[in-house]
Every structure is written in C-alpha cells, then in structure tokens.
Amino acid sequence: MRAYLIINPASGADEPVLSVVNRELAEAGIEWEPGITQRDEDAYRFAQEAGSRDDIDVIAVYGGDGTVTAVASGLLTIGSKKPLAILPGGTGNCIAQELGIPVDLEAATALLRPGAHRMRSLDAIAMKGRHFLLRVGVGADAEMIRAATREQKDQLGWLAYFFGALNQRRAEPARYEIRLDDEVLEAEAIACLVANIGRIGRAGIRLSQEIDPSDGKLDLMIIRNGDWSTIAALGASVLGLEGEEPADPDAPLLHRQAERVSILCDPQQPVHGDGDPHGETPLEIEVLANALELCVPLE
Description:
Elements: E1 2-7, H1 17-27, E2 31-36, H2 42-51, E3 58-63, H3 65-77, E4 84-88, H4 94-98, H5 105-110, E5 117-127, E6 130-132, E7 135-139, H6 140-147, H7 150-167, E8 174-180, E9 183-189, E10 191-195, E11 218-223, H8 228-238, E12 253-258, E13 260-266, E14 270-273, E15 276-280, E16 283-297
Parallel strand pairs: 1-2, 1-3, 3-4
Antiparallel strand pairs: 5-6, 5-16, 7-10, 7-14, 8-9, 8-13, 10-11, 11-12, 13-16, 14-15
C-alpha cells in the first residue's frame, strides 16, 4: 500500500505529526509521501493530484474539518473514488468524531494498518460548484458564523452562540420559499440549515439525532423565530426528544429530508458552507449519495 498524506501545519493541534505518522506507517509496511499545505487552496490541489495517480492507494489528511472538506472536494471534483483517511488535527474535528475516528493521532494513523479498518460511504453536499461535508446555513446561521470568533466555534460549537443570539432577538425573519424534491414549503424564518452531518461542537452535541451522513438524504431544518418555543424545540432536537414531526408549517422548528433543495428568500439572505461565506440566496443544493469512501474503525 502507498499513501499520500496531506498535512495542514496550521491546524490547531500541537504535536509531532511527521514522527508519529512515520513510525506508525513504517511499522505497518505502508509507503507514504507528504504534501504540506502553505495556502488555503493547497489541500484541494494536492487531493486532485494524488487522486489522479495510479500509484496512490489511499489519501490521508491531517487537519481540521476545513482541511478535510477541501481534500474531499478535490477528490469529488475529479471523480476520484480513492479511499480517504482522516487524521484529526483540528480543534473541532466534527467529521472525524461523527465517523468514530479517534482524535488521537497515533490511534487514527493505526487505522491504516491492514485489517484495522473498514470502509464507510459518506454523502456530500453539492452547492454552487463546490462540495461540503457538514452543512450549508442560510440567514441568521450564516450571520452568526461570520461574526463568531474561531475560539467560540471550536469551544462552544454552533448551538451555544446560536442560542445566545436568539436570546438577544437580533435576527429578523425573511420569507422563505423552499422546494424539497417535489414539495414546496413557504415559511417566515430567521434561519435555514441544510445538514449532512449533525455534530456541531467538540462536546458531542448534535443538531439532531436523526441526521445520518450515509442515508442519501439532506436534512433541512427551518428555524422560524427567536422565542422560547424555538429554543425548546432546538433543545429537544439536540437531546433526541423530537417526537413525531409536526405537520404545522408554522411550528417553531421544522425538520424535513430531501435529495434536492432549492431556496429563495425575500429579502436575500447570506449563505455559508461548512463555516465559510458563500454569497447569498437563491440556492440550488443536492446530495451526492455515497460520494466518498472513508477508513473508519471496525466497530
């Protein structure tokens, strides 16, 4: 086996990456070569180059969620199906934790050993010619992502500063017209989330216990307002107490699933993809089912 390892040296963890990886892979008899990023676009480019090579069997990435998403997007853009291994090196590591990958570098690298891992398919989100693994956010969610500091995002996760903003009633509602496959939904709302992965912070908090990143579906959550009924509904979702899905389109929190989602807003709303700004609505989003193959623990 030959591995290509994309390393983001600016990732949050402070550890001797090369010595740990070299020891583990050498003991497993795996040849490897590094690609060390210096600019934001390097991870994407390295993934495309390695994904096109016949002599590379697996692509590993050391970094946080942003670096993992960039590598995944690079592979998806060229249609590569080479297996992807995540060596968590960020502070949040939501993608790795969602898949049960150890956040310890030595343990994560050991998964590459023959017989130490299984392959798991992972869906991806396609939007505006780009690919995302976590979620796309519209409205207040995008505004708060833009305003939050890196420390807040990493330490508190999305939910903490979202609740804080709801308490202060800062968000103004917009009129949403959303097409979910063949269903059209209209609602006044302050935010709309289209999620592939439910995890939203280091504390193991999940946006909803029902979100499955391998089910071939996108999970749409419409947050209608900032009152206490919305906060209670979000809390129930996080705790897995959602109960039966409300049929009332005026419910404070709506959760739907679809393969394709179109979003129109009046007025237009800001958009983020995996925490990075991506313009404004309107949006066309679709799921790429079984887009990636990842090395994950046997159990």
